[in-house]
Specification:
The complex is a heterodimer of chains A (about 775) and B (about 160). By secondary structure, chain A is α+β, with helices and mostly antiparallel strands. Chain A is about 25% helix and about 25% strand. Chain A has 3 domains: about 15-125 and about 195-250 and about 250-285, Aldehyde Oxidoreductase, domain 3 (Alpha-Beta Complex), CATH 3.90.1170.50; about 360-455 and about 625-775, 2-Layer Sandwich (Aldehyde Oxidoreductase, domain 4), CATH 3.30.365.10; about 460-610, Aldehyde oxidase/xanthine dehydrogenase, molybdopterin binding domain (Aldehyde Oxidoreductase, domain 4, 2-Layer Sandwich), CATH 3.30.365.10. In chain A, the strands form 7 sheets. Chain A has an 8-stranded mixed β-sheet, with helices on both faces. Chain A has a 5-stranded mixed β-sheet with strand order 7-15-14-13-8. In chain A, strands 16-17-28-29-30 form a 5-stranded mixed β-sheet, sandwiched between helices. In chain A, strand 16 (about 435) and strand 17 (about 440-455) form a beta hairpin. Chain B contains 5 helices and 5 strands. In chain B, strands 2-1-5-3-4 form a 5-stranded mixed β-sheet, with helices on one face. In chain B, a hairpin with a 2-residue loop joins strand 3 and strand 4 (about 60-65). In chain B, helix 2 crosses helix 3, helix 2 packs antiparallel against helix 5 and helix 3 packs parallel to helix 5. Classes of the chains: A alpha+beta (about 775), B alpha+beta (about 160). At the A-B interface, helix 1 and helix 17 of A face helix 2, helix 3, helix 4 and helix 5 of B.
């Protein structure tokens, strides 16, 4: 049986259930000093003075650093963020000083001794505040910062950090020809990734000039690149090591704490310094997930066919841009959802606010975007009195059609949404969205929503793989992708085992990532590791197969073309009894006489994304990713009309995942994604006080799902339309469980409660308010 | 309970073994366990506020959040960490049910599940849920964790 399509145990499983799996904060070099971040306690204010004297006098304090000691500006796309606030603070929790001390307790004590004098400024506490006429400016210099990674189009003298637009067909001409229109406004708060491992970074600057960074990151090569760039170092000087990561969800793709650790180490002569976030700091000071307000208008014919759409998305990106311009383009490029809409006008705005800044969060903007579009689709279905699944089915994008950014779709790059819809009807026992009475005040109803997503990766994203063979013919695999939960390394090992036709237990994966020894991998993001790493692994495996054959041919006195391989041997195709074991060739072949040829077999493989291009601001043309993953999700809820409480009975996903390489891992990703998405839709959200204070930076106030609150039943099925250019046809699926499940919940509850629920999270109180507002 | 005003040596019983460690006043058990002297890093800091349960250990067989206990409180008590489990059924159940992804919350959930499985009463389903609600996992759908724990507990409703 092939290892591809088999549920295998993750490589590090036994370590994880024994407490022996090591994360960044589990290893401490003796003599490590500690740094602590002093957070701002104003959301928007001029800094008049920072008194560090008392803190410096505490025994054991080694350095106190403020924004005046640091001259760099950081940012993935726009360089707008000082690592430590300078002149003014722009969010509550913004790092304002850094204390380095002998131990953590001393650093914490000193942090409490820092006194800051502020002159408060008007707080931009919402998207509405940010775009209001004469709004206070979060960045007076907006438009004057360096755009490090174009495109980005900041608007001077406003809080608009960037804008992305898509235009297709002619909306104004198409609109009057429609039979029916819907207009909705949706509103989603900022949320937090809430990975269980708070972020950690350690830095050391060695006398020979090398900078060693240990951190809990999804992007070790990005950390290396940016630290080298900001501090004018040679990239080879910077060595970044990442062991297992305790959950990430996009939050660890941003580079922040690593820069602070470097600054701290630099301030104390290069000594090893560690920064460990508390949960409170991790939530309020480090980037979270964006909030969104959107206006969606759809125009359709009476038969349900979509004719045109007008959309405006306003992202609450917080105080700094980070990856927001990329997210804005991802939203613009996929704004229709997986539907064909010939006439389209979409504007996406990144709005600076005095909230915690934001970065990628599982789905890269597709989850909030999908919520907006799928709520509009369900309102349309209700207006048309049409089966909501049928509405989605008839509008599904097909091969040959164009995406909003006019990228051409094929069966390989699109997959098969109608087939997922077909399977969903069966899987959940579809009742056309009808409200079913099950008690005096209780009803049951199902809701659906569909999604699509592509990678929105840079057009030059790369990956690599190095394979070395051991004396027994087993192999070591080195890749640059980090393991933070989805079994990325195990999937890579499966691909290698399949390609070399060897048992999985003969593949050993390098669990950590070290930028000095592992080949460069863009970032472990966008559900792209199986695709990118997998392609590099196949390339490296082919390299080692060629070496096995060429050395084998020399020994067996035949042409490499005469050889085939399997069962850990190379053998003559027409007479398999003439064979050499991999182990005889792995470290070179030794003849009977003792002389030898060859040397260790080392396979190298690489991969680079092809045919992508950036979104053109004028034409809105662009190809944002190699392929899309489509799917449909549904929930069944039981809702109490008196108390507005509800229980999620079923949560279901049907995804066109292409070939599923590890079914157990794939199901795990989808279940986890659904649970997170249902948490976001039903209870999560950052609360800011009237003065912009982050009010709920703890798990007792920022509520995530707990056992017993999850769906009573998870249902998962796959369609397997191969993506031809992907390893074994596998499509991305890591993020996708989260994408449409919240919209499906809102669609079900809107039907159950008889009122459109377009604001997240949907708590019983929110339903009560919406109903009261309607009546 | 001992009163400490300065660093002092205490004797702890960890995973069945007596260990002498020097602790500071106000030091939490989580800190002591993970420190250089003991090096038991299976218990994880996730919130240090009692909310997430990633640091759960057993004290006299009762699951306890080690971030909420002072080390000085546990002299003469038996502390069991995930490193002290020897091929316990719950560990296999977690692997068999794919009950973890990133693994950071796993030690804590395993200690809760282990304690529940050792409990004299066979728990009913609501008891299992109640015990597991003390901890947070952000990766899984929880069903996997519930199934793993349920599989090692006797079922009170079983005939």
């Amino acid at each position: 049986m092939s290892i591809i399509g088999t549920s295998v145990q993750r490589k590090e499983a036994r370590n994880k259930v024994s407490g022996r799996a090591r994360y960044t904060n589990d290893l401490t070099i003796p003599g490590t000093w500690h740094a602590v971040v002093v957070p701002a306690r104003q959301a928007h204010a001029h800094i008049l003075s920072i008194d560090t004297e008392k803190a410096k006098q505490i025994a054991g304090v080694k350095a106190v650093i403020t924004g005046d000691d640091v001259s760099v500006l950081t940012g993935d796309v726009i360089e707008d963020r000082p690592p430590l606030a300078k002149d003014k603070v722009r969010y509550w929790g913004e790092p304002i000083a850094l204390i380095v001390a002998r131990d953590e307790a001393t650093a914490q004590r000193a942090a409490g001794m820092i006194t800051v004098r502020y002159r408060p400024l008007p707080v931009i506490n919402s998207i509405g505040d940010g775009i209001a006429d004469n709004a206070a400016l979060v960045h007076e210099k907006n438009g004057g910062y360096k755009v490090a990674t174009p495109p980005a189009y900041p608007k001077k003298q406003t809080n608009i950090a960037d804008e992305a637009n898509v235009e297709k067909g002619d909306v104004e001409r198409a609109w009057p020809g429609s039979d029916i229109t819907v207009d909705i406004h949706v509103s989603l708060p900022q949320i937090d990734h809430a990975a269980m491992e708070p972020r950690v970074a350690k830095a050391e600057i060695l006398p020979d000039g090398r900078v060693l960074i240990h951190c809990s990151s999804q992007a070790p090569f990005e950390v290396r690149k940016l630290i080298a760039k900001y501090f004018k170092l040679n990239p080879g000087q910077v060595v970044v090591e990442v062991p297992l990561v305790g959950g990430a969800f996009g939050g660890k793709s941003s580079v922040q704490l690593e820069v602070l650790a470097y600054i701290a180490s630099k301030a104390v002569g290069g000594r090893v310094v560690k920064i460990v976030n508390t949960r409170e700091t991790d939530m309020a000071s480090c980037p979270g997930g964006m909030g969104l307000e959107a206006d969606i208008s759809l125009a359709a014919r009476q038969d349900g066919h979509l004719l045109a759409a007008k959309m405006r998305f306003y992202m609450d990106i917080g105080a700094y841009t980070d990856s927001a311009p990329r997210v804005a383009r991802a939203i613009a490029a996929q704004c229709t959802g997986p539907y064909h809409i010939a006439n389209l006008h979409t504007d996406v705005f990144c709005v600076y606010t005095n909230h915690t800044y934001t970065t990628a969060l599982r789905g890269f903007g597709h989850m909030p975007m999908t919520f907006a579009v799928e709520r509009a689709m369900d309102e349309l279905a209700q207006k048309l009195n049409m089966d909501p699944l049928r509405l989605r089915e008839i509008n599904a994008l097909k091969p040959g059609q164009l995406t909003p950014t006019k990228a051409r779709l094929t069966e390989s790059n699109l997959g098969h949404l109608p087939l997922t819809i077909y399977k969903m009807r069966e899987l959940i026992g579809w009742k056309q969205g009808k409200v079913e009475r099950v008690g005096e005040h209780r009803v049951r109803v199902q809701g659906v929503a569909a999604f699509w997503k592509t990678s929105s990766s840079p057009p030059n994203a790369i990956s690599g793989a190095i394979i070395t063979m051991n004396s027994d013919g087993s192999v070591n695999l080195s890749i640059g992708a980090v393991e933070f939960g989805p079994a990325t390394k195990t999937t890579a090992a499966q691909i290698l085992a399949a390609q070399l036709r060897i048992p999985l237990d003969k593949v050993f994966v390098h669990e950590d990532v070290n930028t000095h020894v592992d080949p460069e991998h863009w970032k472990t993001v966008a559900s792209m590791s199986t695709y990118m790493v997998g392609r590099a692994v196949i390339d490296a495996a082919n390299d080692i197969i060629n070496q096995l054959k060429s050395l084998g041919a020399a020994v067996l006195r035949c042409s490499p073309d005469d050889l085939d391989f399997g069962d850990e041997k190379v053998y003559v195709r027409d007479d398999p009894s003439i064979a050499l074991k991999f182990s005889q060739l792995a470290l070179g072949y030794k003849y009977k006489e003792g002389d030898s040829i060859g040397g260790q077999l080392i396979g190298r493989g690489r991969f680079m994304i092809r045919h992508l291009n950036l979104l053109d601001q004028q034409t809105g043309k662009g190809r944002p990713g190699p392929a899309w993953t489509v799917g449909v999700q549904a929930v069944e809820v039981e809702y109490d009309q008196n108390t507005h409480q509800y229980r999620i009975l079923k949560a279901a996903s049907v995804v066109d995942a292409g070939r599923v390489i590890n079914p157990a891992a794939a199901r795990g990703q989808l279940m986890g994604g659904m649970n997170m998405g249902l948490g976001v839709a039903s209870r999560e959200g950052i609360h800011y006080g009237h003065d912009g204070q982050f009010l709920n930076n703890q798990f007792r106030s920022y509520r995530v799902m707990r056992v017993g609150e999850q769906a009573d039943e998870y249902l998962i099925d796959f369609v397997e339309t191969p993506q031809i250019d992907a390893p074994f046809g596998a499509r991305p699926l890591g993020e996708h469980g989260i994408l449409a499940i919240g919209a499906a919940l809102a669609n079900a509850l809107s039907r159950a409660a008889g009122v459109p629920l377009n604001t997240l999270p949907i708590t019983p109180e929110a339903i009560w308010r919406a109903r009261r507002h309607q009546s | 309970m001992k009163t400490l005003t300065r660093p002092e040596q205490v004797t702890l019983t960890i995973n069945g073994e007596g260990r002498d460690v020097v602790i500071y006043p106000g030091e939490t058990l989580l800190y002591t366990l993970r420190g250089d002297a003991l090096g038991l890093t299976g218990a994880k800091p996730g919130c240090e506020n009692g909310d997430c349960g990633a640091c759960t250990v057993l004290i006299d067989n009762i699951p306890t959040k080690s971030c909420m206990v002072l080390t000085a409180e546990v002299e003469n008590r038996h502390v069991t960490t995930v490193e002290g489990l020897e091929d316990a059924p719950i560990q296999h159940a977690f692997v068999d049910n794919s009950a973890f992804q990133c693994g950071y919350c796993t030690s804590g959930f395993i200690m809760v599940g282990h304690a529940l499985s050792q409990h004299a009463d066979a728990p009913d389903d609501s008891r299992v849920v109640e015990w597991l609600r003390s901890n947070i996992c952000r990766c899984t759908g929880y069903q996997e964790i519930y199934d793993a724990v349920r599989s090692v507990c006797q079922d009170s409703t079983a005939p």
